[in-house]
Amino acid sequence: MTTQLLLVQALNGLQLGILLFLVAAGLTLVFGVMDFINLAHGVQYMLGAYLGASLAAATGSFWWGLVLALPAALLAGLLLEVLVFRHLYARDHLAQVLATFGVILFLNEGVKLVWGAAPLQVPIPALLQGGVEIMPGLQYPIYRIAVLVAGVATACGLWWLVERTRAGMLVRAGASNAPMVSALGVDIGRLFTLVFAFGAMLAGFAGVLAGPIFSVEPGMGDNVLILAFVVIVIGGIGSIRGAFIAALLVGLIDTLGKSLMPDLMRLFLDASAARQTGAALASMLVYIAMAAILAFRPAGLFPVRA
Fold first, then answer.
1. For the segment 44-59, what is each residue's pLDDT rounded down to a tens digit?
2. What are the domain boundaries of the chain?
């Protein structure tokens, strides 16, 4: 593999990591604050992508589609929380898993009914078309760089919100001792609802950003959800900083592994066997890394202080 290709794949891995962080940030807040396992978080990413694509097509502008899709994703999260999820908070984790898996099936079929099963293509906005020369003879798409910048800015804003504001203080206090926070006069139910809706909006934001890069199709959130759970386990449940660092790590391992493993296997196997073995090992690398990290840090890289 050439240096240029390695650099491109590393940037692609960072961009994937940013999208994973936007999904995992909401998921780790919901899991860490509410102790609620939401398998349907991936379909909120999918809904964001469909809402962004539809609104961009209706308004003729990607930017209007992005601006309108965020409150729409937040409202969709609120609706799901009121209709389904709030009735599961007092149930055990098995009931939460089964119920949210049912929501996945329902929404995947609902998307097919509304938008059809064919993938939707979202054009890159004119302002972000083209590329930037990062090495002599090597250009990298401006839109992917914009995704990196937007993700880093969101991570900084989210860290400030959670660590430096009164609302963030209440969220962290609710994660540590919800009954005590409620006894002090805070409406813990409303707090949980806002956390859930905000997490849904972050997932929707990731879906809108992913639209011009990946095809928008039913079930697109399933693989992202699996990687998002890996991210929050590696980073530490409830930790925004841990989710950010773990997301970048997972994105790099997943992308570089798929690019490098077939080439590495050619040192030991013929071309056909190396391709198959390399692809199989590449799909396992993220989970091997998770197992190795948890062997030394069972609570994750940056566990939330109790």
1. 999 999 999 999 999 9
2. 7-218
